[in-house]
Structure formats: structure tokens, C-alpha cells
Write a structure and sequence with these properties.
By secondary structure, the protein is mostly beta strands. It is built from seven helices and 35 strands. A hairpin with a 4-residue loop joins strand 1 and strand 2. The two termini are 27 Å apart.
Length: 529
């Protein structure tokens, strides 16, 4: 049985009885998705189905999911077997064995003997949640999560095991370490452990190097004829912006925070990769049109202004988004207009007086390297070029269109009280009627925790009627997650693709562009259902 739950205007959650049903439903949906379905994200009890309403109606999506879910599904074929070398040297190994009432050697033996399967990914790109019918335990998470879990740590939590692709906070109990490259963004297959893959952990004999460090080496145990060995981690590229295209701008000062952004990475959420891209997508599209680019071209997203650059050659630019003074060679120029900056002149964008983010469009588009189909910087996943810094030179490509003649372009910036439209969320029934009303009726204040990942809001606590733990499920930009303290967090473009806090509502696609311009202390009102 499949229960459909709303996840805003561009997605829904298909909820089933257990993880096995999730795996079967996801496989059936992925076998033949209709045009307009953009993402399928399996999780612990749900499959998130994201779609484009311009190509496929919500009613058609519901009909499709229910018809697939009601059919007698064929058995899911086994995926490839991937062997992960592990040193069982984790700091929580002994304590975890004690909690389970077994010896550490027995825990290691059972963990290595089991064949695991990737049920879903999330939390971070390439982070796989693995399950096994041969694993009998439900392991409690740490009572206080670590603020730093090293990359390659192998851990246990609940019914799952998994390995951290990069250094992040985390509450899993760490039992080992692997050097397998779990996520290599520039590889043909960037995620080593994709949904459906089978996994065996191969114990590595520890040896002591001349410097006294413990390293992997010696013999391995197990392995099958169809096993795929984890590749070497060598060759992973740097995130600094390499030279691409024709040099155009020499960065003198990037301001508080400046990144390369395009329209992001759609269709990657099942691999744990967020959409990312410009937070104010409308401003990026307009800036690109003003200089003759395709709307999808990469520009520069600048937080709160303070940006300065020297132009290497005659270059057309356009600045959109927040309100700030723009000068070329000391002369004031207009926002929302194409401006030809002569070679050697300095472009300066002052401190934003209203709004939070400016977009700098450059004719030809910023020619940064492409990671997973996008030039965008994802700050949470550390994908794409690193934030810009003084001394770097931005290159550009070829523009496909001529620069339009623009006499005036109407535009405005939001004030300090912003109306944000919302649509229904999947877990509104977890909250009291008063809490559901408060979402719409209260005036919320943007806290100091606001970045590309999400925005924490201050206001009334949203009380629950259900207090249990929510199994991880797919998330979307705009989701209003409510942690146990009751104050909502709005996920943005770089937010995680799965999460375990209930979502009471979802900001609409148009409302997300407005949230790009909020600052700490600004006030929000949510409007809609």
C-alpha cells in the first residue's frame, strides 16, 4: 500500500510500510519515469518524487505513482558487489560491542561477514545507508553527536551501517576506517555506493609504518568473482578555480562571500547531491539575458556586496539582485542594465543597502570547471569551485546572443518584512492545530544562522502531537523542518537531500528567490496553506 503526502508544489512523498517496500517501489518507479519527473529519492520509509509542474501535472504524478505502487512488482535484481577495505580501529568499537553484549572481535566478524545493500543515500553526497538481513542489531546513536567525524569513518546507527565520504559532524558509532574514495565528483560514476549496490567490508591487516602510524596493508578476507574493488583515492582534483575560458576579471576583493553559481544540479538527489545553484535564480536569469547569455550560464553570487575587480579586456556585465552602488572606473552605473566595462577599468559593487545577494552576470558566462553537470559552488558538499578570493582571474566563454538594448528594466528589492508563499508539507499532522495556524499567523525573525544551507527562524515554538523520531526522508529546498525545540529551519539550495525532522510546510518555488535576500533580524510572514 502506498500513501501519498504533499511536499510543496513540486514534489510528493510516497510512503510505504518498510524499507524493503521502499527499495521495490523506487526500482519500479525508476524503471520508466514519465517526462517531467526530475528526481526519485528513496529513504527509510518513503520515496520522494520531484516533478516539473510545467511538464507534468501533480494529478498525473499521483496517478502514475499509485498505479506503479499497486502493481505486483518483480523482484529487484541484485546490484553490483563492491568491496570496501576497512581497518576495524574505530574509537567506538569496544563500547559498541559492550552495548550489544558481544566481544569486539565478534562484532567485527559479523559486520565483515554480512552482505550489505545500499538502501538509499543522503546526509552528504555519497553517504550510503546500508542494511543487511544478516545484521540482527539496532545500534543506538551517540547521545551527543561529534562535531567532527573524519572522512572514511565507518559507523553504525540503528539498523544501518555506512561510511562518511567527507569530514562532517555526526552521531554514528565509529567502528572502523576506510580509504575508499566514496565520492569523487569529477569521476564518470561519482558515487561508489549507489542505491541498489551490494557491499562487503573487507578487513585489512594493520601494520605499523616507519613513522609509527597505523596503515592498511597485508591480506584481505572474502571477496567474490563479481566483486568490484574500491578505486584509489589518488587524482581527486583541487577545488580552487582553475583557469578556464578567456580571462575577463581579475578579483581584487570578493566581498564578504562570493561564489560561482548557475542554475544548479538537478536530477542528482538520489546520489545525495543537492540542487545548489543561485539562491535568487530570477536575478541570475535576468543578468544573463542582459548580457546575451543563455539563462543557464554561470555568474557570480555576492553576499552583501563589497566586491571589486579589474577588467582584463573590454567586457559586458550586468548586476542584479540586492540594492547597492555600482561603479565603473569611479563612475556610477545602473543595475539591471548591460554595461560595457573597458579594459583596465575597475568594477566596484558597494555594500548592499537592501536585500542580501547580488548577481554579477558576465558576457560569455563564468567558465569554471563543471562538477556533476554544474559550475555551482555547493558549500555543504564542498562541490564546485571554492569561494572566490583576491588574486583569482575569472575566465568567460562565448555568448550565443547579442547584447540587448535596454532603456529601463523594472525591478525592486524586498523590505525588512517579507511575505513568503508556502504550500502543504507532508508532516503537518505531527503538529497541533495551534502550531499549524502559527506558521501562517506569526511573524518570524531571521536568526543569525542564515546561509546557503538554510535559515533558522525565531518565533513561537511549534508544538507537536507526535513526539517519536521520524525516519529519514527526502527533503527539498524550501522545506520547513521543525527540530525538537520547535523553531523551524527553512532549507535552501545547498541543504541536505534527506532529513529526519518533520516538515510542516514548504516554501514555493517563487518564494525561494525572496529568501535569498533575507538578513539576520529581517521578519517573515508565511502565506498560503
Amino acid at each position: 500500500m502506498v500513501t501519498l503526502l504533499p511536499m510543496g508544489e513540486r514534489a510528493l512523498l510516497a510512503e510505504v510500510v518498510d524499507l524493503a517496500a521502499v527499495v521495490a517501489l523506487h526500482a519500479a518507479l525508476a524503471a520508466d519515469p514519465p517526462d517531467g519527473v526530475d528526481d526519485l529519492v528513496p529513504a527509510a520509509r518513503t520515496v520522494l518524487v520531484a516533478f516539473d509542474p510545467a511538464r507534468l501535472s501533480a494529478a498525473a504524478v499521483r496517478t502514475w505513482v499509485l498505479s506503479v505502487g499497486s502493481a505486483n512488482g518483480a523482484a529487484v535484481p541484485p546490484g553490483p558487489l563492491v568491496e570496501i577495505p576497512v581497518r576495524y580501529d574505530g574509537p567506538d568499537l569496544d563500547e559498541t560491542a559492550g552495548i550489544l553484549g558481544i566481544r569486539p572481535t565478534d562484532l567485527v566478524a559479523r559486520h565483515a561477514a554480512a552482505e550489505w545493500a545500499v538502501a538509499f543515500t543522503g546526509f552528504a553526497p555519497g553517504f550510503a545507508y546500508l542494511v543487511s538481513a544478516a545484521w540482527p542489531w539496532n545500534v543506538p546513536r551517540l547521545p551527543q553527536p561529534r562535531t567532527r567525524v573524519p572522512a572514511g569513518s565507518v559507523g553504525l546507527a540503528g539498523e544501518f551501517t555506512g561510511a562518511y565520504p567527507r569530514e562532517t559532524p555526526g552521531g554514528w558509532r565509529l567502528i572502523g576506517t576506510t580509504e575508499a574514495p566514496l565520492f569523487v565528483p569529477d569521476a564518470t560514476d561519482p558515487v561508489l555506493l549507489a542505491p541498489g549496490a551490494r557491499v562487503r567490508f573487507v578487513p585489512q591487516r594493520a601494520r605499523v609504518s616507519a613513522a609509527g602510524a597505523v596503515a592498511a596493508g597485508g591480506d584481505s578476507a572474502g571477496g567474490g568473482t563479481d566483486a568490484v574493488a574500491a578505486p584509489s583515492a589518488a587524482g581527486i582534483s583541487s577545488r580552487r578555480l582553475p583557469p578556464h575560458g578567456d580571462p575577463a576579471l581579475h578579483i581584487l576583493a570578493p566581498g564578504a562571500f562570493a561564489t560561482v553559481q548557475d542554475l544548479g544540479r538537478p536530477d542528482r538527489a538520489a546520489l545525495g547531491v543537492a540542487r545548489s545553484g543561485a539562491l535568487d535564480r530570477a536575478s541570475l536569469r535576468i543578468a544573463n539575458r542582459l548580457v546575451g547569455n543563455e539563462e543557464t550560464a554561470a555568474g557570480v553570487e555576492i553576499v552583501l556586496g563589497g566586491f571589486r575587480a579589474r577588467v582584463v579586456r573590454d567586457t559586458w556585465i550586468a548586476v542584479t539582485g540586492a540594492l547597492a552602488d555600482i561603479r565603473v572606473a569611479g563612475r556610477a552605473v545602473d543595475a539591471y542594465a548591460p554595461v560595457l566595462v573597458p579594459s583596465g577599468a575597475e568594477l566596484s559593487i558597494g555594500v548592499a543597502r537592501a536585500g542580501a545577494r547580488l548577481v554579477l552576470g558576465i558576457r560569455g558566462g563564468v567558465a569554471a570547471s563543471v562538477s556533476l553537470g554544474s559550475r555551482s559552488t555547493d558549500v555543504l558538499a564542498a562541490l564546485g569551485p571554492a569561494p572566490l578570493r583576491a588574486g583569482e582571474v575569472l575566465g568567460v566563454g562565448e555568448a550565443p546572443h547579442s547584447v540587448p538594448v535596454v532603456d529601463v528594466f523594472p525591478w525592486s528589492v524586498p523590505g525588512s518584512l517579507i511575505d513568503v508563499p508556502i504550500a502543504p508539507g507532508p508532516r503537518a499532522d505531527w503538529f497541533t492545530p495551534d502550531a499549524r495556524r502559527a506558521v501562517r499567523d506569526a511573524t518570524w525573525t531571521v536568526s543569525g544562522d542564515a546561509d546557503r544551507v538554510g535559515i533558522r527562524l525565531d518565533g513561537p515554538a511549534l508544538d507537536r502531537v507526535r513526539h517519536g523520531e521520524l525516519p529519514s526522508e527526502g527533503m527539498r529546498p524550501g522545506a520547513l523542518q521543525v527540530p525538537p525545540h520547535g523553531r523551524p529551519v527553512v532549507l535552501l539550495a545547498d541543504g541536505p537531500v534527506t532529513g529526519g525532522y518533520p516538515v510542516i510546510a514548504v516554501v514555493t518555488d517563487a518564494g525561494l528567490d525572496r529568501l535569498a535576500h533575507v538578513r539576520p533580524g529581517d521578519r517573515l510572514r508565511f502565506r498560503g496553506s
